[in-house]
Amino acid sequence: MRIGHINYLNCLPLTYTFSQKTQHDFAIVRDVPAKLNDAILRGELNVSPVSSIIYAQNFENFFILPNVSIMADGDVQSIILVSKKPIENLHKEKILLTAQSATSHRLLKIIMNKSYHIQPEYEIRALSPHDVFSGTDACAALFIGDDALYLKHHQQEGFYYYDLGREWKKLTGLCMVYAVWVVRRDFAQNHHDDTAKIQQFITEGFKNGFAHIDDAITKLTADKPFTHEQLYEYMHVIKWKLDSEQIQALSLFYQYAYELHLIEKMPQINIFA
Q1: Are residues 101 and 131 in the same domain?
Q2: Contact 216, 79 (CB under 8 A)
Q3: Can you tell me the distance from the alpha carbon of 174 to that of 74, in angstroms, rounded to the nearest whole number?
Q4: Which DSSP state fits 261?
């Protein structure tokens, strides 16, 4: 069995649990969200976190694992739009999109359309938080993950910074689900018990890691450009649950994406049981 793991701070509690128990009945593949998305679509992984929009585009092939997601209710801190202008002035301006994500692209387009009624131009490319606009005529850039968190804590005078979690909350009044854990249907149907064990390991892994979050921050983030206090705060912004409130928010996100032709059809939310 091969399961994916996001190599970002937003999964630090699970990373901690993996580090405490080095022997597993499955192989762990660690990577950025975009590469994990591709790997499970190709059948190279059995279970993996995927960007929420990837499930929507491929829902016939997956079940969502219950009780676990990456979500935040309001500010998320790790999806940041950096802009030379106020966000409402970005109509027809070029926005660079990180190549590391999929959900955040659609989320930004929904916010631009429904909150600000504007249509920027978009370009996907590799981005650096240390030199955001070098060599480009772009007016704004979208970052996710550790890069976005770095920008939150290293804001430069003259730029505008927008947390997309806060923007979504302002638009909808709901939390936002950024990623879900999925299992390939063919694997789940042939290995139901194994899938259930993996699901339990993941949910318990997050609980265990969060119960030891100070130790996790101390032991696993020494090479990160953040203080202990900054990471402790972030670990209390991100949540790892999936209940009726999160499913409602996910459904609205999919509805908006469908209305704006960002996905081809409205997905069914099928939970593994």
Answers
A1: yes
A2: no
A3: 8
A4: T
Q: Are 64 and 130 in contact (CB under 8 A)?
A: no
Could you report the per-residue pLDDT of 121-146, keeping only the tens digit for each? 999 988 999 999 988 899 999 999 88
Rounded to 5°, angle at Cα 28 from 11 and 227:
30
CA distance 186 to 173: 36
- Residue 42: CB atoms within 10 A of its CB come to 8
pTM for this entry:
0.94
Q: From residue 261, how far is each of 30, 97, 270 by CA, in Å?
A: 31, 18, 22
Per-residue tokens: 59: 């829902």
CA–CA distance, 187 with 206 (Å, rounded to integer)? 23
Q: Which of 125, 141, 172 is the last residue of a domain?
A: 172
* DSSP result, 218-251: HHH-TTSSS-HHHHHHHHTT-B---SHHHHHHHH
